[in-house]
Amino acid sequence: MKIVFLTCGPRGAGKSTYCENILKRQSDLVIISRDKILVELFGETELSPYGGGHYHAIDIMWERMNEYLFKDNSIKIILDCWNGFPEERKNIISRLKKAGADKVLALVFTTPLEKVIQWFDIKTRDKFNGKEMNESRSRQDYALFNKLAVNIEKEGFDKIVYINPLQIILI
């Protein structure tokens, strides 16, 4: 069976770190990360929205996803990519199913807001204008994601798993 887990949560919720930690415990998983592809290509994830780098990374992400889904009849893949809007998630689910995924599960991160603020500040301290700006961005992202994900169970996932990354839950 081909199973794809899609990470869902605001920036700073610990999605990528969780994926790396779970990979250490479940080596049968494959992780495809948009951010890792951006770093491979450009050395960072914060790119100009006008340069096309994000689109190029997404193209490579889908190429890798298709390769894994095509070559292996029994695989578990974590797709760690931006999907903040319901329509984006629905499009990803549809594309994964067309590429051969048997099941698409959501890993919805329920990280407490204060931990998101802390982690986002550590991650972006040198990129933005101070702690207050980081906290404001974290609060805004957190609120927006939770508002837009209020009906995530109606978006077409085969299953939804709620993850608190402060606890390791094997998937």
Q: What's the structural blueprint in terms of helices and strands?
A:
Elements: E1 2-8, H1 15-25, E2 29-33, H2 34-42, H3 53-71, E3 75-80, H4 86-98, E4 103-109, H5 113-124, H6 130-148, E5 159-163
Parallel strand pairs: 1-3, 1-4, 2-3, 4-5
Number of helical segments with 4 or more residues: 6
Order of helices and strands: EHEHHEHEHHE
Side by side, the strands of the main sheet go: 2-3-1-4-5
Determine and state the CATH class: Alpha Beta
Instruction: Indicate the percent of residues in helices.
Output: 40-55%
DSSP strand (E) fraction?
A: 15-25%
Kindly report the name of the CATH homologous superfamily: P-loop containing nucleotide triphosphate hydrolases
Q: Mean of the pLDDT scores?
A: 90
Description of the molecule:
This protein is of the alpha/beta class. It has one domain (2-163): Rossmann fold. The protein is 49% helix and 18% strand. It has 6 helices and 5 strands, in the order βαβααβαβααβ. The chain has a 5-stranded parallel sheet, sandwiched between helices. α2 crosses α3 (53-71) and α5 packs across α6. The radius of gyration is 16 Å and the shape is globular.
